[in-house]
Amino acid sequence: MDDALLAVAREAKGFMPDDEGAALHEAGRRAAPCGPLLEVGSYCGKSAVYLGAAARAGGTVLFSIDHHHGSEENQAGWEHHDPEVVDPETGRMDTLPLFRRTIERAGLEDVVVGVVGDSATIARHWRTPLGLLFIDGGHALDIVLADYEGWSPHVAPDGLLVFHDVFEDPAEGGQAPYQAWKRAVGDGFTPESTTGSLRVLRGG
Ligand code: SAH
Ligand code: MG
After folding, report:
1. Which of the residues are catalytic?
2. Could you give all domains of the chain from N- to C-terminal order, each with its CATH number?
C-alpha cells in the first residue's frame, strides 16, 4: 500500500496492528473483481483506509457501516473507551467526525461510502452481492451473530468473508467473533488465512 495512505491508517484511532491491516488490504485487492467491499464497524476509519485503498486499486468502492455511537465495549467505564470521541453536547459517543476526517486525509472520499445506521437494519434492505465482507462491529455475541447472519448471505460466490478480533484462547480476548467464525466454517465458508486476530475465509 502507498506510504502516505499507510501513514493515515496508522494515525487513525483504533486497534489494528500493521500486519493485520496489510492482510486486510491484500484480501480487499483480491476480492475487488467480485464486487464492492463492505465493512461493519467504521469507528474512526482506520480499517476503511486499508480497504478503501484496495477498492481504489481494484476499481470498486467500500461501504463502511456504523451508527457511530460506539459498541457496548467502547462506552464510558469500559476497557476500550476513549473520552476524545464523546460529543460534549450530548454526552454520547460520536465517531462520525473522526471517520470523515480520516477518509478526507487519505483522499479516499470518492471510493469510501459511509453508511450511518444500525447494521442489522441496513442488512435487511441490502441487495448487492459483495466481493468482501469485513465483520468488525459490536463484539457482544448477539450482535456479532446478527451481523454474520444478516450480511453473510450477500457475499458473492468466490467472495471473501473476514472477521476481526478472533481469539481462540479466552485469555487473549472475547469469544464472540470466534463463535461467529466457527458458525461460518460450519456453513461452508473455507478458512484461507490467519494474521493475528484477522481471519479470512472464502465463500462457496
Ligand atoms: N473497523 C474499525 C473498528 C470498528 S469498532 C477499525 O478497525 O478501525 C466497532 C464499531 O462498531 C463501533 O464504532 C460501533 O459504533 C460499531 N457498531 C457496534 N454495533 C453496531 C451496530 N449494531 N450497527 C452499526 N454499528 C455498530
Ligand atoms: Mg476490531
Report:
1. 139
2. 3-202 (3.40.50.150)
